[in-house]
Amino acid sequence: MIQALLASGIVFGLLKYFERGKDRGLDSFTSITFVLVPALLIFLATIGTGIAGIDQQFLIALVALYFIVPMLMLRLQFELSWRQSAQYGLLVLLVVITVDTLFYILLSATNA
To answer: Which domain holds residue 41?
Structure first.
């Protein structure tokens, strides 16, 4: 969850930077929601597959939730265009993948 909070902070900073001068209501709670909702859904799916005994390799497609959730929230709740919503969704996905990758690299380096 540390990496989710780090990613939320980075997403918040980037949204504030890109949305400066515009008052659309994109605040810290929204940026946290963009990261924590998909993380919670993936966590619950991981628990479900573990209980059911299903191979967890099928869960890799759920990473797309980091793109889908922000895109739909920005389009439907904040009424941004589909293009801008997709760009911000891609930004969230890239930030989460980068933070997770760096987090696991640092974690594996400390365990070596």
So the answer is: 1-111
